[in-house]
Structure formats: structure tokens, C-alpha cells
Automatic annotation (TrEMBL):
GO terms for molecular function: protein C-terminal S-isoprenylcysteine carboxyl O-methyltransferase activity. The keyword Transmembrane helix applies. Its main location: membrane. The keyword Membrane applies. It comes from Acrocarpospora phusangensis. Keywords: Membrane, Methyltransferase, Transferase, Transmembrane, Transmembrane helix. It holds the Pfam family ICMT. The chain crosses the membrane at residues 69-88, 100-117, 137-155. This is Isoprenylcysteine carboxyl methyltransferase.
Length: 169
């Protein structure tokens, strides 16, 4: 029961992200934003939705147990990933989005977690994608998400870097 509530809480958090992203997209478009990467975005949404569904399905269908020595540290990583994600959102302010949207002429953000890592939000996604299923030993979901997310991040980061270079010229 509590694992289902955790997954639902993460789902609510995703909805909150989409609300922020929609508001930020309006802000960016009003300033002449360039939108890139429309082709991979539906795949990203499907992958993240499948992560949540996979967590619940694998635990239920494969009767995965909660193993305290694994579950509690993974829960701590999930919470840390949420903290990092919202630190990224706060640091980027209206420039943060779930889509690749760049406003030409704005300086590259180098504060907050961006001081140390070029794409810290993707670190949060990778950690959460592995840890959330492992809270309840859903190792197949963790493995599949990690592999598919790595492939998607190659595409996403290349797209984002190209958009940033284009906006800087």
C-alpha cells in the first residue's frame, strides 16, 4: 500500500512539473524561444509514464517483496533525486522545461547544480529511474528503464546542446 502511495506521489510530482513547464513555455515563447527535439519528446513521456506503471505492475505481478536493506537506501536516493530535480528547476527559473526550449540571447546558467554538472536534472532522472523501482525490488523495471533512458539521453543531450549552440549565435 505505501509503495503505491509513493508511486502516486511521484506521479503527482510529475504533474506539478508539467504545470511549471507549461507556464515556463509561455514565458519562453513570449521571448522568441526556439523549440527543438519534438520527435523524441513523446518517447520521453512514454518512458517516464512506463516507469511508474512498471513499478506497480512488476511488484504486483512478480510479487516483489520489500527488502529493507535495499528499499530504505533506494528511498533515500529517490528523495535526493527529487531534491536535485527541484534545485534544477529553481536554479533555471522560467528557463526550465521538460521540452528543449531555448531563448536566444539569454546567458547559459552556471549556478546551483549547474556549477558542477552540465545536465544535473538528467542525473536526477537516472538516479530516480533506477532507485524508485528498487525501493520494492522491481529490478526488471529498474534495468529496462535505465537502458532505455540511457539511449534516450544520448538523443536528448545532443538535441539540447545543439539548441544551446544555435541560441548562442
Amino acid at each position: 500500500m505505501w509503495y503505491t502511495l509513493l508511486i502516486l506521489a511521484v506521479g503527482v510530482e510529475r504533474i506539478a512539473e508539467l504545470v511549471v513547464a507549461t507556464r515556463n513555455e509561455r514565458w519562453s515563447r513570449a521571448r522568441g524561444a526556439i523549440v527543438s527535439g519534438q520527435g523524441h519528446y513523446p518517447w520521453m513521456v512514454a518512458l517516464h509514464t512506463s516507469l511508474l506503471a512498471g513499478c506497480l505492475a512488476e511488484v504486483a505481478l512478480a510479487d516483489r517483496p520489500f527488502v529493507p536493506w535495499l528499499g530504505w537506501p533506494m528511498l533515500a536516493l529517490v528523495v535526493a533525486a527529487q531534491g536535485l530535480r527541484w534545485w534544477c528547476i529553481r536554479t533555471l527559473g522560467p528557463q526550465w522545461n521538460t521540452r528543449v526550449i531555448v531563448v536566444p540571447g539569454l546567458p547559459l546558467v552556471t549556478g546551483g547544480p549547474y556549477r558542477w554538472v552540465r545536465h544535473p536534472n538528467y542525473v536526477a532522472v537516472a538516479v530516480e529511474g533506477a532507485a524508485l523501482p528498487l525501493v520494492h525490488t522491481a529490478w526488471v523495471t529498474a534495468l529496462v528503464f535505465t537502458v532505455l533512458n540511457a539511449a534516450l539521453m544520448v538523443v536528448r543531450i545532443r538535441c539540447e546542446e545543439a539548441a544551446l549552440r544555435l541560441a548562442a549565435t
